[in-house]
Model the fold of this input.
Amino acid sequence: AKASVEDRAVNLRLWRGESTAVLNTETDPAKVLASFLRLASAAESGSEDSAQLHDSFCLSADLLHFQAQQVEQVETLCKREEEYFRALHSDIDSGIEEARRKIVELKERLALERVAKRRKLEYEELAAHVNKFPSKEDTDHHMSSLKEDLKGKTEEEAAVNARLQERTQQFQLLLHTIQELKSLLAEDAEAERSA
Done:
């Protein structure tokens, strides 16, 4: 409930401590009553002052009525302000509750984001460590080439072993032949000596 310009002017005067009513000693209800009694007394006695007393009473009564209207207006404005401030207070309270709810929600979201960030950093660290090694395809290709090399070396070793075996046998045959020649030469030398 927004106050009109006139209401705001009255409110401003109230806040400053100024009265909105016309401050006149003639508007005091007791004095107005006393004025009325003087008028009634003058009217009964037929005094010449009765016209002046009547005018004075009417002016005081009008001022009192005006002052009463102003008091009613101030009361209405105060009630409007009270309603306005109650609504404002309610809006502020609901705003505070909404802010608290959002704070709790954002704290929960922050905790989840921190966990996600920590996991992402761990993943990136593991990915960096894993990326130091060759890929599976490269490793499989390297292993197959190593297996082919091993197979070739195994075949080569078998061929070398076969040649070595053959040479060993030839060497043993050669040694055996040398031994036989030595024994033949020794027999020949002995036969020549005996002959």
